[in-house]
Design a protein that fits this description.
The complex is a heterodimer of chains A (175) and B (639). Chain A has 175 residues and is α+β, with helices and mostly antiparallel strands. Chain A folds into two domains: 14-70, no CATH class; 82-161, Glutaredoxin, CATH 3.40.30.10. Chain A contains eight helices and five strands. Chain B is α/β, with parallel strands linked by helices and 639 residues long. A five-stranded mixed beta sheet of chain B has the order 2-1-3-4-5, covered by helices on one side. Chain B has a five-stranded mixed beta sheet with strand order 11-10-14-12-13. In chain B, α18 (457-471) runs antiparallel to α19 and α20 (500-516) runs antiparallel to α22. Chain B starts with a helix and ends with a helix. Classes of the chains: A alpha+beta (175), B alpha/beta (639). Chains A and B meet through α2, α4, α5, α6 and α7 of A and α2, β10, β14, α18 and α25 of B.
C-alpha cells in the first residue's frame, strides 16, 4: 500500500536485481547506493524493486519509501526518451532561465516534472549543472545547449522532435 | 619502494612529457570545457596529428578556471613558446597543427597568451591583468598537469608532505596547522586545528574522516573544479588528516550531479593505491588508510555535516543537534572528522611550505587564500583564487573584468542561498570570514553572483527563498513552514498584491526562521531577504507602493510594448515569434501587443531587429497607452 506512489516494475531483469542485492551489502548504510544502482538500470524506482529492497535489507517498506522520496535524485516513473533538464541555478535564473523553462513546457505541452503521454519527452528543472558561464543552459540527454532563449527552444526541438509529436507551429497557425 | 624512488620515476615521466623532444598538446576537459565543446577539440587534435604524421602527444588536463574562454588548449613546443589558445573549435585545429606543430607560426591571433613551460609552475603573460591580483595555491597546477596521471602530481611535489607527515608526531602536525591559522573552507570558518584536536583526543579505536564534496549551492563550482583538475591533492590531505587523528577509514561524500569528478576521483584513488600512497601500510610506515567514494542523491541539506552522516548511514538526510560534535560522536556513533574539499587540499601545502608561509598570506584572522566562483553578469566568469582580504571591488572589476555590455553594477550575492546581497557602496568590503559576516553576507561556499541593472533584487531574494524552501528537509517547523510563508509574501510583493505592512511581516518571519532552525540551511535561509531589505529597500517599496519593478523583471508588474514610432510595419518578426498569437497589426500596419493574451515570454523583444529596437518593457503596466492594450473588437471580427 505504502508504495502506491511508484509505478509497477516492468523491465528490470531479476538477474540485474540480484547482482545489485549482493550479500555484502545487506546493511542499511548501502540503501542509497542500492537505490542509485537500481535507478541506473531501470530508469526509475519501481514498486516491485522497492519491495525487493525492503525485503533484502529487512526494513519496513515505509522506511525504504521514506528514504527514496526524501532525495531529489529518485524518480518513481520512467523518463522520456529525450529527457529535457532546464537549469535553474542562480546564474541561469538571472539570465532568464525561467522563461526558457516555461517556453519548453509550452512547446512540449507537458507539465514541469512530468513525462509526455507518448514518452518522447520529459521535462525537469535542475538546481545547477555547473556551466554558469554558458547561462542559461538546458540539457537534452547528454547534450548541453548553451545560451538558450525562448525562440531557440523551438529551434532546438525542431531538430529532435519526431514528426507528429507535440504541437508544431504550422497546425497552431491553422487553428 | 621509498618515496624518493617514486618521486624520481614520476619526475622522469613528467620531464619526458613536458620538456622532452616531442611537442605536447594539453586540452582542458573538465565539465565546463566539455560543455563548451572540448571533447570535439580533443578528438580533432588526435585525428589531425595522426593524419599529418605529426610528432606530438595529446593530454587531457583539468580547468584553469577561465570558464568564459573555454575550450582552452595549451601547446608546449620544445625550444619555442608554450602558447595557450582560447575558444578553440575543431575548425581551427588544422590551422594550429599545420601552423605551430608542423610550422613556426604560433597563431598568436588565436592565443590568450604564452605560458612558460618546463619547471611546472605556469607563468601567464602579464597582459592578463586578473592574474596579478590572484594567488593561486590550490589552482596552481589546475589546467596544466593531468588529473589522470598521478605522476604529474608527484612530480610537482605531491605526496612529499604525506611522506613527511608520516614521520611527524600527530601533535606536531596539529601544532603546525594551528600556527598556520587555517580555517574551514566549508563556509563557517571554524579553526581546523581545534576540530582535529577534538577528534584526535576522542576515544575509541574506530574513527572516520569524511571529505565534504557535496557542493550544492547553485552557482558554486570550486570543489568540482578541484576534484576534476587535481584530485590527488584532496586525497593526500585526507591521508594526512587521517594519520593525525588516528582514522583508518575515509569517505568522500560527493554530489551525484558531478559524474566527471566522481570518475576522476575513482581513477586517482586507484592510482594512489597502486603506488602504495593509500591503502595498507602507506610508504612502509605501518599506517593504513582506505577511502570510499559515496555519491549523494541530490539533497542540499546533505552538505550539513550531521545530515551528511545520516545520509551515509542510509537514512533521510536530517541534521542532528550538536553537541555532541561529530569529532566526538559522529558516523555510526564514532568520532568523525568532516572537512571540506578545499580545506583538505591546503593541508599538503602547509606541511610542505610551513605554517609561517601560509599565515603570511591573507589577513591575520583569515590566513590563506579564498576560492571564488564568479558568475552572473561579469565579462570574465570562472574561478578566482585571491588572498583573503582582497576587496569585492577587485573581484568584480579587476578579475571579473567588470559588467557585461557596459551595464551598471547593482549588487553582488556572496555565499549562495545562505549568503547575502551587497550593494555598490559595500564593494570596498574585504573578503574574509569576519568582514563578510559583519556586512550580513557569509563566505559560505564561495559562490559570487554579480547582478546588473536588469536584475530585480526582490526576484533574486525570492529565487533563493524558493530554493531553500524546496530543499528544507522538514525537520524544524520554522524552516519548513516559515520559508513557505516568506515565499508567499515575496510572491505577493512581486505580483503587486502586497501592502507596506507585509514588509514588516517578511522581516519578522525572516528573524523567526533564523532563530528557530537547527541547522545552517534554515538559520541562513533568510539572509538573502534580510540583506536585500536592508540594502535595496527602495526596490521593495517600488513593488509595493507603485506596483513597479525597477528592473522590469517581475512579470505581473511589467508589460511588453511596441513603440509605434520605431516599429517597421512590413516586418513580421515579432508576430511569428509570439507563441500565443498576442501580437496583431493596427489599422496602420503597426504591431501591437494584446496585453490580455501576452504571457511575457520575451520572444518579441529578442527577435525585434536591432535596427528597429521597437519592443520595450514598461513597468508599471499602466504606462501602456490605453488605446494600445488590447485588440479592438472590430479587428477581431474582420479576421
Amino acid at each position: 500500500m505504502i508504495l502506491r506512489g511508484a509505478q509497477p516494475g516492468g523491465n528490470l531483469p531479476g538477474e540485474t536485481l540480484s547482482n545489485i542485492l549482493i550479500e555484502g551489502r545487506r546493511h542499511r548504510r548501502h540503501l542509497v547506493d542500492i537505490l542509485q544502482e537500481i535507478q541506473a538500470a531501470e530508469g526509475y524506482l519501481s514498486r516491485d524493486a522497492l519491495r525487493e529492497v525492503a525485503l533484502f535489507l529487512d526494513l519496513p517498506a515505509s522506511a525504504v519509501w521514506g528514504v527514496a522520496t526524501f532525495y531529489n535524485q529518485f524518480r518513481f516513473s520512467p523518463l522520456g526518451r529525450h529527457p529535457v533538464r532546464v537549469c535553474m541555478g542562480t546564474a541561469c535564473h538571472l539570465a532568464g532561465g525561467r522563461l526558457v523553462l516555461e517556453a519548453m513546457a509550452r512547446e512540449l505541452e507537458i507539465d514541469i516534472g512530468s513525462t509526455g503521454e507518448d514518452e518522447e519527452f520529459s521535462l525537469e528543472r535542475v538546481a545547477c549543472i555547473g556551466c554558469c558561464a554558458l547561462a542559461p543552459v538546458l540539457t537534452i540527454g547528454a547534450d548541453v545547449y548553451p545560451h538558450m532563449t525562448p525562440p531557440r527552444v523551438e529551434e532546438v526541438l525542431v531538430a529532435i522532435k519526431p514528426a507528429g509529436a507535440g504541437k508544431s507551429k504550422e497546425n497552431r497557425k491553422q487553428r | 619502494m621509498t618515496f624518493d624512488d617514486i618521486y624520481r620515476r614520476a619526475r622522469a615521466q613528467w620531464e619526458s612529457q613536458y620538456s622532452g623532444e616531442t611537442p605536447l598538446v594539453l586540452v582542458g576537459t573538465a565539465t565546463c570545457g566539455r560543455a563548451a565543446g572540448s571533447m570535439a577539440v580533443l578528438e580533432a587534435f588526435r585525428r589531425e596529428i595522426e593524419g599529418n604524421n605529426a610528432r606530438a602527444q595529446v593530454s587531457e588536463v583539468g580547468c584553469m578556471g577561465l570558464c568564459s574562454y573555454e575550450p582552452l588548449v595549451i601547446i608546449i613546443k620544445p625550444g619555442d613558446f608554450s602558447v595557450c589558445y582560447h575558444h578553440v573549435t575543431p575548425q581551427v585545429v588544422p590551422q594550429l597543427v599545420q601552423g605551430y606543430l608542423l610550422g613556426d607560426d604560433a597563431c598568436l591571433d588565436l592565443a590568450l597568451g604564452t605560458v612558460a613551460g618546463g619547471d611546472g609552475e605556469p607563468v601567464y603573460i602579464p597582459e592578463l591583468e586578473r592574474f596579478s591580483h590572484e594567488t593561486r595555491l590550490l589552482l596552481g597546477q589546475c589546467g596544466y598537469s593531468s588529473p589522470l596521471q598521478i605522476d604529474h602530481y608527484i612530480a610537482s611535489g605531491g605526496y612529499r608532505s604525506l611522506s613527511t607527515a608520516l614521520k611527524m608526531k600527530p601533535v606536531d602536525i596539529i601544532r603546525t596547522i594551528d600556527r598556520s591559522g587555517l580555517r574551514g573552507r566549508g563556509g563557517a570558518g571554524y579553526p581546523i586545528s581545534a576540530k582535529w584536536q577534538l577528534c584526535r583526543k576522542a576515544g575509541g579505536k574506530t574513527k572516520y574522516i569524511i571529505c565534504n564534496a557535496d557542493e550544492g549551492d547553485p552557482g558554486a563550482f570550486m570543489d568540482r573544479v578541484l576534484l576534476e583538475s587535481n584530485p590527488q591533492a584532496v586525497l593526500e590531505g585526507m591521508a594526512i588528516a587521517a594519520y593525525t587523528v588516528g582514522a583508518h577509514e575515509g569517505f568522500i561524500y560527493i554530489r551525484e550531479e558531478y559524474p566527471l569528478a566522481i570518475e576522476r576521483l575513482k581513477l586517482a584513488l586507484a592510482q594512489a593505491e597502486a603506488n602504495g600512497l593509500l591503502g595498507k601500510n602507506i610508504l612502509d610506515s605501518g599506517f593504513g588508510f582506505a577511502i570510499e567514494i559515496t555519491r549523494g542523491a541530490g539533497a542540499f541539506v546533505s552538505g550539513e555535516e550531521t545530515a551528511m552522516m545520516a545520509a551515509l548511514e542510509g537514512r533521510r538526510s536530517w541534521p542532528e543537534f550538536r553537541p555532541p560534535y561529530p569529532a566526538e560522536s559522529g558516523l555510526h556513533g564514532r568520532p568523525t572528522l568532516v572537512n571540506n574539499v578545499k580545506t583538505l587540499a591546503y593541508i599538503p601545502l602547509i606541511i610542505e611550505r610551513g605554517d609561517k608561509w601560509f599565515s603570511g598570506i591573507g589577513t591575520k584572522q583569515s590566513p590563506g587564500t579564498a576560492l571564488f566562483a564568479l558568475a552572473g553578469k561579469l565579462n570574465n566568469t570562472g574561478l578566482a583564487e585571491v588572498p583573503m582580504g582582497t576587496t569585492l571591488d577587485t573581484l568584480v572589476y579587476r578579475i571579473g573584468g567588470g559588467i557585461r555590455e557596459g551595464k551598471k553594477f547593482k549588487g553582488v550575492q556572496i555565499g549562495g542561498p545562505s549568503g547575502g546581497c551587497l550593494p555598490e557602496s559595500l564593494l570596498n568590503t574585504p573578503v574574509d570570514f569576519d568582514s563578510l559576516k559583519d556586512a550580513g553576507a557569509i563566505m559560505g561556499s564561495g559562490g559570487v553572483i554579480v547582478m546588473d541593472e536588469d536584475n530585480c533584487m526582490v526576484d533574486t531574494a525570492k529565487f533563493f527563498v524558493d530554493f531553500s524552501q524546496r530543499e528544507s528537509c522538514g525537520k524544524c517547523t520554522h524552516c519548513r513552514i516559515g520559508t513557505w510563508q516568506m515565499l508567499d509574501v515575496l510572491e505577493n510583493i512581486t505580483t503587486g498584491k502586497a501592502l507596506m505592512e507585509d514588509l514588516d511581516l517578511l522581516k519578522g518571519l525572516a528573524e523567526d526562521v533564523k532563530n528557530g532552525s537547527l541547522c545552517s540551511l534554515g538559520r541562513m535561509a533568510p539572509n538573502p531577504v534580510l540583506t536585500t531589505l536592508r540594502y535595496f529597500g527602495d526596490e521593495y517599496q517600488a513593488h509595493v507602493l507603485e506596483k513597479r519593478c525597477p528592473a522590469r523583471v517581475c512579470k505581473e508588474l511589467t508589460a511588453y510594448y511596441i513603440l509605434p514610432e520605431k516599429c517597421e510595419r512590413g516586418c513580421d518578426h515579432c508576430v511569428l515569434a509570439c507563441p500565443v498569437e498576442a501580437i496583431f497589426s493596427d489599422d496602420k500596419g503597426l504591431k501591437v501587443v494584446d496585453q490580455s493574451k501576452c504571457t511575457k515570454c520575451g520572444s518579441c523583444e529578442l527577435v525585434c531587429p536591432v535596427e528597429y529596437n521597437a519592443v520595450v518593457r514598461l513597468s508599471p503596466v499602466s504606462l501602456v497607452p490605453p488605446d494600445r492594450r488590447t485588440r479592438p473588437e472590430t479587428t477581431s471580427k474582420e479576421l
